[in-house]
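Same chain as my last thread, 186 residues:
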Amino acid sequence: MDERGGRTFPRTGEVTTNAPTVVAVVPDDGFQLSARVRGSFGSAFDAGGLLVRTSSDHWAWLCFERTATGTPTAVTVVTRGVSDTAVGRPLSESEVWLRIGRDGAAFSFQISSQGTHWETVRLFSLPTDGAVEVGVLARSPRGEGCTVTFSDIRYVALASRPSGLRRGSSSKNRSGRSLSDAQVSD
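reply #2:
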């Protein structure tokens, strides 16, 4: 578990590190990381998701999260010294597929209900000199904890950069490495 990459709140400057992660360093300039995510979310802001980090002050996550009203949704946070949050549309599913795409310093976050047709929820950039950390995270900042199950985890290094981060697709990949299923608890 790794608790670096805390969220920095713009108004107060407060830094929190409440999201245990499992990460790996990947050197590829173009890739896709996807996973099916299911969580037992009992409290507001309980979440499970995917993370990309270029430094302790530059990172982003895409989460399947329970909002303050109890609605499951896709939430993104991008941190470039200070964190910003974007809340997506409500999701009716009990699980969702999440995907990160990388094209150099450009990244995309996408969601899917079946892992086949992807909807882009955010495009952004992070400063990077090459390798980045990617992985999974679980968080329960206000509750007693939650359990998140990650399955069908897939990392694809792209021989050529993705032909459009918005579509998140590429016909050329170097390797489609499937990682074993993981479960992370906060």
